[in-house]
Amino acid sequence: MSQWEVVIGLETHAQLKTQSKIFSGASTAFGAEPNAQACAVDIALPGVLPVLNREAVVCAIKFGLAVGATVAPRSIFARKNYFYPDLPKGYQISQFEIPVVSGGGLTIQLEGPSTSSGQARTKFVHLTRAHLEEDAGKSLHEDFHGKTGIDLNRAGTPLLEIVSEPDMSSAVEAVAYAKALHALVQWIGICDGNMQEGSFRCDANVSVRRPGAPLGTRREIKNLNSFRFLEQAINYEIQWQINEIEEGRKIQQATVLFDPDTGETRAMRSKEDAQDYRYFPDPDLLPLEIKADWIADVKAGLPELPEAMKARFEADYGLSAYDAAGLTTSLATARYFETVVGSVGKAGAKPAANWVMGEVAARLNKEGLDIDAAPVTAAQLAGVIARILDNTISNKIARDVFEALWNGEGQDADSIIEAKGLKQITDSGAIEKIIDEVLAANQKSVEEFRAGKDKAFNALVGQAMKATKGKANPQQVNDLLKAKLAS
Amino acid sequence: MKMINASLKDLSAALAAKQVSAVELSGLFLDRIEKFNPAYNAFVTVDRAKTLAQAAEMDARRAAGETGPLLGIPLAHKDIFCTEGWLTTCGSKMLNNFVSPYDATVVTKLKQAGMVTLGKVNMDEFAMGSSNETSHYGSVKNPWDVNRVPGGSSGGSAASIAARLAPAVTGTDTGGSIRQPASLCGLTGLKPTYGVVSRYGMIAFASSLDQAGPMAKSAEDCALLLNAMAGFDERDSTSLQRDTEDYGRDLVKPLAGLRIGLPKEFFGPGMDDDVRAAVEAALDQYRKLGATTVEVSLPNSGLSVPAYYVIAPAEASSNLSRFDGVRYGHRAAEYSDLGDMYAKSRAQGFGAEVKRRILIGAYVLSHGYYDAYYLKAQKIRRLIANDFSEAFKVCDVIAGPASPSVAFKFGEKSADPVQMYLSDIYTISTNLAGLPGMSLPCGFGKDNMPVGLQLIGPWFGEAKMLGAAHQYQLATDWHTRAPEGLL
């Protein structure tokens, strides 16, 4: 691969989280009976007219602010003309020459070894533009006995099409970018990110070239609705293009589809039959004017952005870049973490980070839950961590308490500790007594220890902990055992 | 009082005085339609039961205490307005089965004002034509001479007033479609400033030029109708948010001091002598009434026809894409696949003139031609608007002919589209500039055919224009004339 350079740009369609459609009052809720959410405007009855939903514009402004882009003071809606049964007007209202958002970009985290200074590897992906447009309906080819069914519920759903510069050079980078974008649009609350329902889907423009050569001809892979497919499709496409060129063929510009069953891409249409969309400004809609005070209003309502929050976590809580990045993968995670820290104090930030990214994340992942739906609330987790910090329970017992909370066995850590008698034994007299019993019952281990086998010490600690059902303060056990053996 | 020749004001008084009920009045006109329409073909759809039920409703509203200048008065709608429960054909075979499930805003507003729908009147197909010869439902005959055209596209509207089949009608004007037929049929018709009347529910021809307006016997009637039709509509983004105004407020204003601008370009060669004589006589009358005339210039008006025939077809080609046979309207009985269904349905559903304009429109918007045609035409449009702004610095209204000739004979221009297009040479520039314009009867030309005087106002100059027209009509009786044998 090293003799080939890969160039990838992504076009992403994010469905905006508005109550109603972009140019009509019909609901955007997913899953209704076919055509139950298509009003006169969506069906494109004769005489109907579009009226822009300002909420969709707010979403675009939020995005523009979040990626440091320019929000156009005046942008234009244009008609993209083509015929298709699920495109009721015979044209899609989109933005062409002047989009609402231009420029900006976002930083993506790359896997692999950190830099020499210990920083995670990152890359800044530039954005070309983001524009507002309406979605089409759906053509249903099954269940209609050779005919095609048309469901226009989705017609007119607001989309933000986000176009990146061709800044990515591998499928892994493309996926990292898509994931960062996916997290960001959810973070700022403009998209629910549900990829299965089509709320977030990517088209990938892929080309290859010899290092230093001009850009190769690109092919566009359409409608990738999972990160896995995105990666598979790009990797297949890269290899296919390289093979073509190496076998002496030229790449033809084309639009291709990815077939998840075969893992292959295949051409849908070539440049020759590329359509002329006859774009022109939509005379039914006035230019979209966005004044500075509107942008200021939206800005005031925008949550702290992930990059800023990550920096603050590092500075305020002394967390590593790795931890801070992990905690800011979603706004919900970050808020959960901050609620915990708010309760246990800054001293508990590191344990809080460990718990959120460790136990909590693992359980959520296992059960396929979002952190908003976590059975253990941030306040409950804070209760557990507080008891670790004040030595009421050990880390190990804490995991049992967490488990009990997760299973709904109690209201808070304290009641579970109380009910199950999990309180740590810190009375050194009591621990000493137990250690004496353990030493008496494990003479063999004592001798081994004295013969220089350090492992035997751990076995003795284990026995003491076992005898107290894990409740003895591990540090105290260690200290007292060392003292006894030394005497 | 002869109801069929009465002004709306007189009809209103008769209704208020219970000299006639709304049911009786509608019945009277329905009888006339039944008797005379076969000769003129002005009405496409008449539904006696529906009309009388609506009239009864208006009588009930009056009985319940409601009053209003239009309550109980019948009117016919151009078949371009969606009318709930009525066939709405737009003059096309494409919509020969389309019963609208909703009312256009104009229809709703006139119903609210108490007007009774008398039926739907004929028009050039999709409002594309100047003679009513392009209607799928047959051409409309000019009541002044059934061998001549009534003008177009609102030819059915004009003929129904001229033949006294309706006391009032709605029309639409994209390039002269209210004013030219008003001129050719000897009645008063007004195209308001773009954005004054909602376009919602009015089947779009060229969105940036289309404007609905009233047609009736007199300026006074038009003012009453416009009061009911005008107003901001949140469902039309291009409708203007302005304070409600009384368009009849200047009716009683004397003409002394009114400055009438006479564009030299409107009085050059191209205007028939009989038209010129009638227009000059009208201007003399104005001067007699105290107005002054001043020569002005609209140097770019010669470009208005070519610019219009780029912009209007461009918008039309896109607006008419929704007529694809998928959801409503004509669908070919037999087809082999999707593309074939589109091709056959549209080939069968649209007439020759509509197809010509779709082709022109698609061509001027296509890649590589857009700048040379569409963009250039838009620039010319601005120049034309600037010309008017300059002219209105030295005058209050502009006057000239509405049409270069009196009504022509069937077939006279239909073989030569360019000759046909030139019949709108004096009206098109106001649409391009978004200005209000009207035509009022000012005498008769050769073969005793009516001649119309066009008045053009500055933006929102409707009241001023109507005042100037009414003062003229107080001093003349051209507007009360009707074809022989009808009264």
Task: Describe the fold and architecture.
The complex is a heterodimer of chains A (487) and B (487). Chain A has 487 residues and is of the alpha+beta class. Chain A is built from 16 helices and 17 strands. Chain A has helices at 40-43, 54-66, 171-187, 227-246, 292-300, 306-317, 321-327, 331-344, 349-367, 378-389, 395-406, 413-420, 428-441, 443-450, 454-467, 474-486; strands at residues 5-15, 70-71, 74-75, 78-81, 91-94, 101-102, 105-110, 121-134, 138-140, 149-151, 158-164, 200-209, 219-224, 254-259, 264-270, 280-281, 288-289. Chain B has a domain at 2-255 and 466-480: Amidase signature (AS) domain (Amidase signature (AS) enzymes, Alpha-Beta Complex), CATH 3.90.1300. In chain B, 37% of the residues lie in helices and 12% in strands. An 8-stranded mixed β-sheet of chain B has the order 4-6-5-10-11-9-7-8. Chain B has a 3-stranded mixed β-sheet with strand order 1-3-2, with helices on both faces. In chain B, helix 5 packs parallel to helix 6 (179-185) and helix 7 packs antiparallel against helix 15. The model of chain B has no long low-confidence stretch (mean pLDDT 97). Classes of the chains: A alpha+beta (487), B alpha/beta (487). The A-B interface holds A 40, 43-52, 79, 81, 83, 85, 88-91, 148, 150, 276, 278-280, 283-286 and B 81-82, 88, 90, 95, 98, 100-102, 104, 199-204, 206-208, 234-238, 314-315, 317-318, 320-324, 326-328, 338, 342, 362, 365-367, 370, 374.
